[in-house]
Amino acid sequence: KMSIGLDFPSIIWKQILSEEVDVTDLEGIDKLCVQALDEVTKLDARKFSEMVAECFQTQLSNGVQVELKDGGAEIPVTSETRKEFVELVIKARLEESILQARAMQKGLAQIVPLRMLRLFSWYDLEILVCGNPNIEIEVLRRHTKYSGLSASHPVAKFLWKALNSFNQEARQMFLRFVWSRNRLPLDERDWGTTKFTLNSLNASDEALPIAHTCFFSLDLPNYSSYEILRDKMLYAIFNCQAIDVDFNPSSSSLNAWIDE
C-alpha cells in the first residue's frame, strides 16, 4: 500500500469527517490572522479607536473580500462590536472550504463508507491516507541496501549521522529528493520489497549527490568528511528539485538529477 502525499491542514480532515473545527484549525492555515484577531481583542478602547479601521468584511484564502453581515463593507467595527467582528471572521474563515471538503468526503465515501471513516479521528485518517509526517531515520536505515559500499563505510556513516541531525522538514526534503514523496510507508507490511539503495559515486568533494527518484536510490560521492557531506546534502535537497519545475537545460541544479 502506497500513501498519498496530501499535506492538508487539520481543518480539511476534520470537515471530511464532519468533526467540529475551531480557532486552532484556523491557526493552522493562517496564523497571522489569528494573531491579529487576538490583538484586536486585547486593545483598550482608546488604542482600538486609534489603531483599528476595519469594517465587517474579511479576506478569504483566495484573496476575495467577503462581507461578514449584510452591508458589512459599510459598517465600521467599533470597540463595542469587535467581539462580534472577531467571531464572524473566525466563522467565515472556518467555513470557506466546506464545499470542497464535502466534495472530497463524497468521493472518499465511494471507497469507504462514512460510518466506517467516522471510527477514526481526523489525525488517524490522515496517517492512514498519507503516512506518518515524522520520518524516523532508523526505519529508513533498516530498509536500505548498499551498492559499491557497505553499511560500515565512512561515507555511509556520515550520511546516517547527517540525516539524524536533520529536523523533520529537512528529512522530508531528503525523502522527496530521493523518492519524490515526503513520508515513509506506514508500517513494515506497506514497505513490501521496496528498498532504498545507496550507491557509491567516484567523485570529488565538489560534487553533489545524485538522486534517482524512480528507483529510490542515491549516488553518494566519497566525501572526505562528515561536514562536507552534510553541507552538500542540505544544498542538494533544498536547491535541486528540478523534477518539480519546468525543464531548463541551463539550470545548474540539474547536475544533482541528471546522470552523465
From TrEMBL:
Top-level taxon in the UniProt lineage: Eukaryota
Matches recorded under InterPro entries: HECT_dom, Hect_E3_ubiquitin_ligase, HECTD3
TM spans (from-to): none
GO biological process: regulation of signal transduction
Molecular function GO terms recorded: ligase activity; ubiquitin-protein transferase activity
Active-site annotation: 214
A Pfam family of this chain: HECT
Entry keyword set: Ligase, Ubl conjugation pathway
Domain HECT span(s) in chain numbering: 1-250
Protein name as annotated: Ubiquitin protein ligase
Native source organism of the sequence: Hirondellea gigas
